[in-house]
Amino acid sequence: MTQRLIIVSNRLPVTVRAEHGEPVVHMSVGGLATGLRAPHERSNGLWIGWPGDLGDLDPRGRDKVRCQLAELRTVPVELDPTEIEVFYEHVSNAVLWPTFHDRVDRLPLRVEGWDVYDSVNARFADAVAEQYEPGDVIWVHDYQLMRLPALLRDRIPDARVGFFLHIPFPNPEIYFALPTRAWLVEGMMGADLVGFQTRRFQGHFRAALRRLFGLEMDAAGYVRWGERRVRLGVFPIGVDTASLATRAASPEVDSLVGELTTPGQRLLVGIDRLDYSKGIPRRLIAVERLLVLHPEWRERIRLVQVAVPSRDRVAAYREFRTEVEGLVGRINGRFGTPTWTPIHYMRRGVSTDVVLGLCRAADVALVTPLRDGMNLVAKEFAASRIDEDGVLILSEFAGAADELTDALIVNPYDIDGTAEAIHTALTMDPADRRRRMRALRDQVAANDVHRWVATFLETLTSE
Ligand code: F6P
Q1: CA 10 / ligand 1 centre spacing (Å)
Q2: Global pTM?
Q3: Burial code of 281-298, b = ≥16 C-beta within 10 A, e = fewer?
Q4: How far apart are CA 62 and CA 41, in angstroms?
Q5: Residue identifier of the C-alpha nearest atom 14 of ligand 1
Q6: What is the mean pLDDT of residues 255-275?
């Protein structure tokens, strides 16, 4: 791709940290940030998004941050406290997030704030229009910016715009709970290409288009939308497999693996944002069930559960934390001994090295979301296993289950079934473990984040 790429996401891939009393901006190392770094740099592109809450900085600190952001070719869209509360915390994370993860039971009584959602999307559209030069390609990311493609179409009718939804698109039976169901789809249809993680999510979107507007996708993947044609596509996101494998082989990660390994004890690992879509409570109960159904594992297994704090100003997330921590305490209280604690719970963000160390040291990785667009921890686990060992237990409701078919696939609502899958994983023949892990590794190597970026952008620009 020779055109300049303008990436737009709610959050910029940066973190602002105070160092010696001065704010310093660092580029994040997450999957999306790493995947898009090359086209961003190669095309001399721009990344437009929210730099996070800079409210604690004095005016001089804010100016310093703005200069550093410009050096990184990022353009900040700063949100004021009301916008953070209504656009980010309420509409995006208390309304859209639960609905798109099939959890309408988590919806607040009042599903409102769409005017602020729209005005923030319009501010993003203005920021893009200000930077846009003819020939640029614009790639919009995720559910916080579903109105943006249409708002861009109003401002720059000829722009080439792609939209990718990182989270599930729900079945219309659920999606139709949203009073703004047509308006949000109209927003997405401002794009030339709308991408989904899986065929199922694309199917749900097609069903919504049919029921809302009587429109069908043709055999080539296009939907007629007024004077334009919009292409729908499936682009499962990957991880930076090669660099994760290289880092996993580093002496730093090696020594972590040594520290995490306890002779005579098998290690189960769960790494998630502390989010109710991730299935942590049922996973904990499945481990408890394992200790009841197969008491021979008592004192011989332990689960390290990393729970990365997330969106903790949203009530549902705060309540969820209390639920998880209550369960950890109950299970440890029931089975723990003076020398053994079954669940080692850590509520904090961890470095990539710690993630890789845990993945490499694990006998079993538990990735059991109730609903997930993709789930990159499952892919990181496979990428890290340079020893071609370890078993992945994966929920059938993660997008990753469509690709990672050599995992032990479980229904996370079936607690006894999940407990038995853990037992199967712990007793699996080493040859079977290796055969499965090799297949998983081949899959994540062939479909990495670079391939995802290239395929989406080729499709978007190949008209
Ligand atoms: O999975 C969707 C997503 O937006 C990711 O892209 C992101 O890493 C995560 O949720 C965290 O979201 P937030 O920006 O709300 O912390």
Answers
A1: 9
A2: 0.96
A3: bbbbbbbbbbbeebeebe
A4: 25
A5: 11
A6: 96
